[in-house]
Amino acid sequence: MSDHLSTAKRVFQIESAAVAKLADRLGENFNKAVDLIFNCKGKVIVTGMGKSGIVGRKISSTLSSTGTPAFFLHPAEGIHGDVGMVSRNDVVIAISYSGETEELLCVVPVVKRLGTALIAITGRLTSTLANMADLVLDVAVEEEACPLGLAPTASTTATLAMGDALAVALLLARNLTEEQFARLHPGGSLGRKLLLTVENLMHGGEGVPRVHVNTLMRDVIVEMTSKRLGATTVEDESGKLVGIITDGDLRRALTRHGDSLLSKPASEVMTSAPKVIVKNELAITALRMMEENRITQLFVVDSKTSDSVIGVLHFHDLLDAGLV
User: Fold this and answer.
1) Which single residue of 108, 140, 180, 294 has CA 20 to 30 Å from 227?
2) Are residues 236 and 111 in the same domain?
């Protein structure tokens, strides 16, 4: 019986070595390519045939999802009219390991006549494509993982890695924020993590547990029990948040005061300066705050300068929303 595990390990070794060696060959052309795309006034157009085309689609998708508008142009469709999508202000990334792909080379002269910048990703620096390009990114590999040396394997992995490197470098150059990234990924669990705000999940209105600084603890316990959030705000005469009482505070106070606890005012049991979060913050930010401070509730305010609580967010709300 064939040793499939040893075959798989050999493939991993060859392909990981191919990617690692790209780092040693990266030069000023990579910096120039990032700058060229970053300063592009139009679109980024990725093109390639066969396996290079499949990788090209992924690269264009990754660029678009990280803040660099891009689309894929199939060379065969390009030479039958779709090259009309290309304009002078665009940047074209042409992918061909051999640099001699016929359909791709039919598109390149049109790109050159327009004066559009051309970046080649190829494994042959002396190829026709490389010679016609403004910039060349070298993805040459010593061997393919395919034992026949025919199926593109290590070379496509290297090309994919080069595309990822471009996308990440551009993401950092654009200082893409989580909120900006979220707008590009509205669907699925990623969208939930990056689009849901605190206001979307918080308990507001009558659902917020509230007591006054002078409220007796017997009534504090009733309020906490009825709202079932494991904590309550403690507010002064003006409605300003001055403290919090949690289930943990109750247990510690009971140990200190015993039966006399029920007649104590909230001000003697509360923890001052509770953590708050602004309503338009991302829910994932609230989760990080809870984890960093080892707490399970956050009171919600309208703005950073507000002292009035409009809601409360519990760890279970984040759990129910699929953020944990």
Assistant:
1) 294
2) no
Is 24 in the same domain as 68? yes
Q: What string of DSSP letters covers 166-231?
A: HHHHHHHHTT--HHHHHHT--SHHHHHHHH-BHHHH-EEGGGS-EEETT-BHHHHHHHHHHHTSSE
Are residues 142 and 35 located together in one domain of the fold?
A: yes
On whether both 208 and 158 belong to a single domain, the answer is: no
pLDDT band at 67 (very low <50, low <70, confident <90, very high): confident
Shared-domain flag, residues 113 and 206? no
Does residue 183 have a pLDDT over 80?
A: no
Report the candidate in 79, 81, 107 with the shortest Cα–Cα distance to residue 93.
107
Domain that holds residue 237: 198-320
- The band of 20, judged by pLDDT with boundaries at 50, 70 and 90, is very high
State how far the Cα of 256 lies from the Cα of 260, in Å rounded to an integer.
9
CATH of the domain at 118: 3.40.50.10490
Distance between start and end Cα atoms, the chain: 44
Asked, for residue 20, whether it belongs to a domain, the answer is: yes
Read off the pLDDT band of 25 (50, 70, 90).
confident
**Cα-based distances in Å from 12 to 18, 26, 55, 160, 180:** 10, 22, 18, 15, 35
| Alpha carbon distances (Å) from 90 to 34, 41, 105, 172 | 14, 7, 18, 21
> Does position 43 have pLDDT exceeding 70, yes or no?
yes
Rounded to whole angstroms, the Cα distance separating 91 from 133 reads: 11
Same structural domain, 238 and 269: yes
Using CA atoms in the order 277, 278, 281, 286, what is the torsion angle rounded to 10 degrees?
10
Any domain includes 289 = yes
List the 231-235 sheet strands across, edge first.
210-212, 231-235, 241-246, 271-272
The total of structural domains in the chain comes to 2
